[in-house]
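quick one
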Amino acid sequence: MPLYQISKFLFVVFLGQISAIVATLSAQEPVAPNVLFIAIDDLNDWVGILEGHPQAITPNIDRLAERGVLFTNAHCQAPICQPSRTSLLTGTYPFSNGVYDVEQNMRDAPLVKDAVTIPQYFRKHGYHTLAAGKIHHRVNEEEGSWDEFGGRKGWDWMRSIVGPQGVSGLPDPSIFDFGPVPIETEDMNDMRTTDWAIQQLEKEFEEPFFLAVGLLTPHLPLFTPTEFYEQYPLEQVVLPETRPDDLEDLPPMGRKFTRYFDSTPMSHHNITRHGLWRKAVVSYLATATFVDHCVGELLNALDRSEHADDTLIVLWSDHGFHIGEKMHWEKRSLWEESTRVPLIISRPQSTVSASRSSRTVGLIDLYPTLIELCGLPSKDGLEGRSLVPLLDNPKLEWNYPALTTQMPGNHAVRTEDWRYIRYANGDEELYDHRIDKHEFNNLASDPQYRAVIERMAKHLPTHQVPSGPRLPRRKYTQAFDWTQP
Ligand SMILES: [Ca+2]
Ligand SMILES: [Ca+2]
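structure w/ calcium ion:
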């Protein structure tokens, strides 16, 4: 064979091999990562790396942040469990889906009745979905989402161990109790949930999995095993920074929001009157450290499993928590303490590691983000936006504010520099986060900020669907009119 023919022969063979390789590659499905979806209940920014409290000990959440992107300016869309979780799981705002309050069933709202939630969407697209603990607000709402559900254990058994007298020292601890409890760490609800999830991580799966772990701590009651409580000596703990005159520049609706618990033992007045603020701070810090311990156990189990290299991790909390800031406790407000949440996304093969993004993002953005990260088809009707561009470049320009709604008509708009609140009756607040991270100085009545307010107000929702059907009020919620002072 002449040389040119040999060359041509070899070239044809070479081409053939290339096309065979290309055919093999295109025959393979794109590799969809597994998802470890860690939901925490009521954890505010008292997380080491978020610096919401100078003494917070959360080494495991901190180390997760070191292998992904930490969103330092992430906010919930509703400052209470049910509407926040409904918003996240359906990818829609409360003012679009009609779930505004804790005393609603998600699926009773006409616009959520047939909504396809994140786990349902993953399940529909070939994922094996598993969960334990609290992902949806009510345990019956978990039905239809999971191929396997590891159960959820409530708080009542812990209260029965503690007894009616409680551990806080409050005369009536039925609504709010806090402190160390005689329960072993491994017996805590969240360790049961964590252990179940660890058992799943030790298994092999034929399909990619979506494993959701819903940790209940630090939701009330703030019970922790003694070993966590003892990490924070009572006399040395730092109280949240507050000002005695902080409420004086609030409009009537703002002041009203601080009074939700006034007729209950969980009022700021009652807790300080009994000298228990410090103990409550220690208890909250201890619960944060305990839930961080659970996160650490999960990360360790994932790292030693065969799924370590192809699992993406998302960690979020459903809303924040006041511990005396603005003389307010718990959630249900439109200030930073209620809306700011931990949010970390760690990709299995991240090109950008150990990054922080200070762009304003919302939990509503998780649905489109997860779809994109896992290569699922895009979905119509989602109101958030994928954070993948920020995962690639955490400093990317991002002019999308975060919106939070507390009952119909009350909204907060948060940008990197500002928080603007408008209540149902038209009352307003404005805070400059560049110089006032505690939101002490309400600037809304100062004429020089009118232009800022007008700019922020453009982001307020332009529609509001009516609330879905309401359930009977339970003992821990109060009759309260959120529409007028
Ligand atoms: Ca919650
Ligand atoms: Ca003030």
